[in-house]
Amino acid sequence: FFSSRRRHTRYISVTAVQTCALPISPKVTSTVVRITPRAAPSPPAEPKAMEAVVRAAFGQRRKMLRSALKALGVDTAALIAAAGIEPTARAEELSIEEFGKLARAYAALG
To answer: What is the pLDDT along the chain (110 residues), one digit of tens a residue?
Structure first.
C-alpha cells in the first residue's frame, strides 16, 4: 500500500531474522530494513492530487482502476490513458511511480 513516507524514503531489505533469534517465536517472518531519505520525493507529484488518486484507487476493494477512479469525477478513461496504465489494473498492482503518473495526469485534467 502507498504511504507518504515511501515517497520521501527508500526501504531496502537487509536480512531475514530467524524466528529462534527472538525471545518469543512469532508465526511470521521478520526482516531488518534499512531506511534512507530520498533527495526529492519520488514520484514527483502534487501531494493533494496523489492523496486523491490513492484514496479513490483503494476506496473500493478489488475494483479495477477504471471503476475505482470514477470517484474522482473526471473522465476515467482519459486519466488512465494519460498515465499509460492498463484500465484493467487494480490499485494493489501499481507501483509508487505509476501512482505518481496517475496523480500528475489527474492534476492536469483537473
So the answer is: 445 556 677 778 888 888 777 788 777 878 888 888 878 766 778 889 999 999 999 998 888 999 999 999 999 999 999 999 998 999 999 988 899 999 999 999 87
User: Please, what's the b/e burial string for 25-61 (b: 16 or more CB within 10 A of its CB; e: otherwise)?
Assistant: eeeeeeeeeeeeeeeebebebeeebbebbbebbeeee
Q: Where are the alpha helices (DSSP H) in the chain?
A: 4-8, 47-58, 65-68, 76-83, 96-109
pTM to 2 decimals?
0.68
Question: Which residue carries 474522482 as its cell?
Answer: 72
